Amino acid sequence: DVKVTQSSRYLVKRTGEKVFLECVQDMDHENMFWYRQDPGLGLRLIYFSYDVKMKEKGDIPEGYSVSREKKERFSLILESASTNQTSMYLCASSLSWDEQYFGPGTRLTVT
Amino acid sequence: KQEVTQIPAALSVPEGENLVLNCSFTDSAIYNLQWFRQDPGKGLTSLLLIQSSQREQTSGRLNASLDKSSGRSTLYIAASQPGDSATYLCAVNGAGTASKLTFGTGTRLQVTL
């Protein structure tokens, strides 16, 4: 079974803090993704990576950056957290264009 | 730009009923379509993946169909159970978009006793 894990289920941070969200997959998948999910807006792609050190912007990359130093790990970075980044963050991975597998999500609150 | 719509937004049915969830998409140039289930406050669980060359996929009580030319997919749930209560999301993987999914906003299903 594919397993995608995220470092925290719940996180509370203050405005202006630097925030790291970590995602790890154990199936040697090439592709990894970060989404955010908001009521009424659905899931929106922030960034994705198709190989180590390779990344591409998704639909809403502003205010975020990513890092992929190892194939199994994909980090989302909020350089200076703001209240409008309060959301559910979901990580996913896939092999090529195949099925995407999701982690349990991190609910981030920025106060 | 691909747009994915799911109707209805919410559905309540008594236990035992068969039901159909609908998903439509605007650009028929897709690579595949995936159905997910999401429980409140949790991540997404993949239910079925249909490749663009396929017409349907089945897993247990679930059957998903795809009509690419008309931009539609349906998820059929047979003999619904209270444990099926969740939000169901469909997502399309557009050809040429490097594995990026476009999601619908989901159908929230409640199966009552």
Would you mind describing this structure in some detail?
- The complex is a heterodimer of chains A (111) and B (113).
- Chain A has strands spanning 4-6, 10-13, 19-25, 31-38, 42-51, 54-57, 64-70, 73-78, 87-94, 101-102, 106-110.
- Chain A is built from no helices and 11 strands.
- Chain A is globular, with a radius of gyration of 13 Å.
- In chain B, strands 2, 4, 5, 9, 10 and 11 form a 6-stranded mixed beta sheet that branches.
- In chain B, a hairpin with a 6-residue loop joins strand 9 (86-94) and strand 10 (101-103).
- Chain B is globular and about 45 Å long.
How is this fold's topology laid out?
The complex is a heterodimer of chains A (111) and B (113).
Chain A: E1 4-6, E2 10-13, E3 19-25, E4 31-38, E5 42-51, E6 54-57, E7 64-70, E8 73-78, E9 87-94, E10 101-102, E11 106-110
Chain B: E1 4-7, E2 10-14, E3 19-25, E4 30-38, E5 44-51, E6 56-59, E7 62-67, E8 72-77, E9 86-94, E10 101-103, E11 107-112
Parallel strand pairs in B: 2-11
Antiparallel strand pairs in B: 1-3, 3-8, 4-5, 4-9, 6-7, 7-8, 9-10, 9-11
Main sheet properties of chain B: 6 strands, mixed
List the secondary-structure elements of chain B in sequence, H or E.
Answer: EEEEEEEEEEE
* Overall spatial form of chain A: globular
Uncertain runs of chain B with pLDDT below 50, 5 residues or more? none
In sequence order, what are the helices and strands of chain A, one letter per element? EEEEEEEEEEE
What is the helical fraction of chain A, as a range of percent? under 10%
The protein's oligomeric status is heterodimer
Overall number of strands of chain B:
11
Largest interface: A-B, 27 and 22 residues
Which regions of chain A have little confidence, pLDDT < 50, spanning 5+ residues? none
SS-based class of chain A? mainly beta
- Helices of chain A, by number, come to 0
The geometry of chain B reads as: globular
Helix content of chain B: under 10%
Q: Can you count the beta strands of chain A?
A: 11
Beta-strand content of chain A? over 45%
Number of helices of chain B: 0
| Gyration radius over CA of chain A | 13 Å
